Amino acid sequence: MSIKTYVPSQESIERNWYVVDAADQRLGRLATEIAAILRGKNKPTFTPHMDTGDFVIVVNAEKVDITGKKRDEKLYRRHSGRPGGMKTETFAQLQSRIPERIIEKAVKGMLPKNSLGRKLFTKLKVYTGPEHPHQAQKPETLEINTIPGGDR
């Protein structure tokens, strides 16, 4: 008798949709929770090499918060691929220009750096305002409290 490891089939994996409100949430702690849900670590069927996670919709991305002096000191870099093509901007500049990208970059950095991570990243949907076009999926509201020390 040999003991077999349980591996869920793609048909048996249940995919849920969750809505997370990013208003007045801490960026890093929020991104950690979202990455765990995308990965499926909150489920008993979690398998490291498979996509067992759920879809996450983030609303109010422009209201995400950070601590300390990061608003002026945290830098986001991108490169055009051409010589001298490095572009740099602060958290505040990026938040005023494309606030969705802040949450996307934070979550993407917490996912695996391989084809599985790229597949998981497609299940993250980030929107600036309180509205999103995914009402047909009947998403559940997910409460994430990222502010330490209880209710403030």
TrEMBL record:
Renumbered residue ranges of the record's region Disordered: 129-152
Highest taxon, organism lineage: Bacteria
Pfam family, one: Ribosomal_L13
UniProt-listed Gene3D superfamilies: Ribosomal protein L13
Keywords (A to Z) from UniProt: Ribonucleoprotein, Ribosomal protein
Keyword field contains Ribosomal protein: yes
GO CC terms: ribosome
Family membership: Belongs to the universal ribosomal protein uL13 family.
Function according to Swiss-Prot or TrEMBL: This protein is one of the early assembly proteins of the 50S ribosomal subunit, although it is not seen to bind rRNA by itself. It is important during the early stages of 50S assembly.
Assembly and binders: Part of the 50S ribosomal subunit.
Protein name: Large ribosomal subunit protein uL13
The species this protein was found in: Almyronema epifaneia S1
Organism lineage: Bacteria, Bacillati, Cyanobacteriota, Cyanophyceae, Nodosilineales
Gene field: rplM
